[in-house]
Design a protein that fits this description.
mainly beta; globular; OB fold (Dihydrolipoamide Acetyltransferase, E2P)
């Protein structure tokens, strides 16, 4: 399953050599979503693996990016207890300013975000797309 998401790059970690044959590099995106006129911020840690580890180098912290990724998961059992891990494996990172925002694979639409980085604001003011219309399942009066 291939998905896309637009966000602001907030952290780039160093490449980790996990084993002789496997290396990964993690990074974090700040995601903003408008629901009922309120902006909610989420953070997603993603990873690049093997020969993809260097593709994040051309971006700086604070840059708006579009990331194409797959969801990968593993299951393992230890001492009778089953554990699960999920990874967001990025395979492409592009500038979000150069590509149309707000699309996701499979024909589903995501709200487009533009980030206001002017004025030295550290808090991340976001301007959500004016045509955002949440589905009834996502409308909720609760702030969490």
């Amino acid at each position: 399953m291939s998905l896309e998401v637009n966000g602001k790059l907030v952290v780039k970690y160093d490449t980790q050599q996990v084993s002789e044959k496997f290396k990964k590099r993690e990074f974090v995106l700040e995601l903003a979503e408008e629901i009922n006129g309120n902006i909610y911020t989420n953070f997603a840690k993603m990873q690049l693996v093997q020969n993809k580890c260097d593709i994040i180098d051309r971006f700086n912290v604070g840059d708006p990016v579009k990331v194409s990724f797959n969801i990968k998961g593993n299951k393992w059992e230890r001492d009778g207890k089953v554990n699960y891990i999920t990874n967001l494996d990025a395979w492409r990172v592009e500038s979000a300013t150069a590509a149309p925002a707000g699309t996701q694979s499979g024909g589903q639409s995501q709200p487009a975000q533009s980030y206001n980085n002017g004025g030295g604001n550290q808090g991340g003011n976001y301007n959500a797309a004016p045509n955002f219309n949440p589905s009834p399942e996502t409308i909720d009066d609760l702030p969490f």
